Amino acid sequence: MPYLILSDASLAFGHVPLLDHADFQLDVGERVALIGRNGTGKSSLLSALAGYGGLDDGKVWWQPGLRIGYVPQEPPLDPELTVFQAVVAGMGEVSELLAEYHAVAQALADAGADQAVLLEHMHVLQSELEARRAWSFEAQAERVIQRFSLDADRLVGTLSGGQKKRLALAQALAISPDLLLLDEPTNHLDVAAIEWLEEMLVSSGVTLVFITHDRRFLERVATRIVELDRGSLLSCPGSFSAYQARKEAMLHDEALANARFDKFLAQEEVWIRQGIKARRTRNEGRVLRLERLRRERAARRDRQGKVELALDAGDRSGKLVALLEGVHKGFGEKRVVRDFSCRVQRGDKIGIIGPNGAGKTTLLRLILGELAPEQGRVELGTKVQVAYFDQFRSQLDEQATLIEVISPGSDYVDIGGQKKHVISYLGDFLFAPQRARSLVSSLSGGERNRLLLARLFARPANVLVLDEPTNDLDIETLELLEELLQDYSGTLFLVSHDRAFLDNVVTQTIAAEGDGIWREYAGGYQDWCDYQVARRGGVTPVASPPRDREPRPGEASRPGKATPPTKTATAGKLSWKETQELAALPGRIAELEAEQRAIAERLADPALYQSPLQEVQRLTVRLNEIDQQLLALLERWEALEA
């Protein structure tokens, strides 16, 4: 029996239909990822499935007695409540009793309190809670608070963005839901929390519908992908990689069908305009068919275009961007940065990773010379022009129009020495001309991020600082941003929890090691993970400077500097067996690459998707296996050559 069924659902925002007679069914045990471009209505659909948002037409059926845990993108939290009170707030009529009992228990710990009065009050509360069988609720609340590493007595208003997201997840899980609905659950969480959440969702067996842009989270958690595209819901069982292969073929088929339709319509339009000759020979049926074709073409919604990103690096900075030697920084008793040294050169693309509260923003401000160290030396290079992307979007004035945000007091922006009208420039970021004078307050989260990127890229900068730029962006825009940053000639500092984004963009990583210790590693997030695994396994990594640049004087001996192992040193000559293995490796790699090309060609063939879905899944799994085998063989080849 399904958990919920969405039938013939319609929902419009202005003149744009977000849902156009859409249908959806969720079965027990499924983990469905809801994806789509920004502004297509994913959050509105999830709200309707949770029972909080209404539909213009159609209906949602829920299994009777179904317990639903819902975490919206921006959870409404009362800043005056404690964490415990906020968690039990969703537990129905016993929530107030539990919150009061917890407050009395805390008051008893105060030596100056009236113990007799408090004990009598606690006895009354205990009796009421026992009568309602509510002790299991309290235990469940305490478990989820502990699981999310929250302080039960801390006020909600004092929590960071990541802690508030964990609190919202704790609220949803405290009721032991049958169905969990999550809107961008990875936003504001650090990488460790995201990986824990992945494991918890997969191992718990909870039925799940979630919206996310995190491609690794999608691949790990989803058992089915549902795309909201132009009002319709397109379902694809299997992993995200299987969906990508199928989607490419579907878009190809759609483009061919539209081209054939448009060609036939153009021919009919020529015929109807042939004048007297046409009126003599035409029949009424053909005229009626032309009218129907015109209506179909007018009703067809073309796929939304891609964001046009362009970035002006401005004048080149000096070769040295920043030099830090023995830097220390703390706030009160807390050591945020301890004895950190690094050298940043023009063109470096540096990822900064660490748990929430580790001091990533403080480290960035030290590197950029915005904050003075307590000890050590910071030297900033010459001709440095910095542009900053703020994850909390504090640079956006809620009451300003889009035009005022991009180009205050002017109708043009200067991009790479060429003037462009601000409305045309906004169009590059998928803002329609009629929305150019809309207020920032009317934008969704993803649209605000696009606007902030448009504002950032409208000014030349040779040093980019991006603090969580991927929040709320759709996957297509993410991939375009990746390509832009890969080709960017300036220096980049990137703070992100998106592991795939880090791996695809950065050339080196600065990671928090705890207690104010920061270390620099070559490569992206996965390279750092490999290094940690090797270190825990007792393998001594080879120290070397970050890749893509020359070693620096004294760098190899400097403490706190390490890179992932890339070669295994072997003493002496290769054995006969190793020599034979080395000789056979090129042939084995060539065979796998040939099989890889053949599978890729099959996945790109639209005819494949008319066959059973199991064949598509088998080919996708095999393609992933080949990727892993090739990586292992190349590493082995490199080790033997060394």
Structure write-up:
The protein is of the alpha/beta class and 642 residues long. It has helices at 42-50, 83-88, 95-108, 115-131, 135-147, 161-174, 191-204, 215-221, 240-272, 276-281, 284-299, 360-367, 402-406, 422-428, 445-457, 475-487, 499-505, 525-536, 576-603, 613-641, and strands spanning 4-13, 16-26, 31-35, 57-62, 68-71, 179-183, 207-211, 224-229, 232-237, 320-331, 334-345, 349-353, 375-380, 386-389, 412-415, 418-421, 463-467, 491-495, 508-514, 517-522. It has a 6-stranded mixed β-sheet with strand order 5-6-7-3-8-9, sandwiched between helices. A 6-stranded mixed β-sheet has the order 14-17-18-12-19-20, with helices on both faces. Helix 3 (95-108) packs antiparallel against helix 4 and helix 19 (576-603) packs antiparallel against helix 20 (613-641).
How do the helices and strands line up, and which of them pair or pack?
Elements: E1 4-13, E2 16-26, E3 31-35, H1 42-50, E4 57-62, E5 68-71, H2 83-88, H3 95-108, H4 115-131, H5 135-147, H6 161-174, E6 179-183, H7 191-204, E7 207-211, H8 215-221, E8 224-229, E9 232-237, H9 240-272, H10 276-281, H11 284-299, E10 320-331, E11 334-345, E12 349-353, H12 360-367, E13 375-380, E14 386-389, H13 402-406, E15 412-415, E16 418-421, H14 422-428, H15 445-457, E17 463-467, H16 475-487, E18 491-495, H17 499-505, E19 508-514, E20 517-522, H18 525-536, H19 576-603, H20 613-641
Helix pairs in contact: 3-4, 5-6, 9-11, 19-20
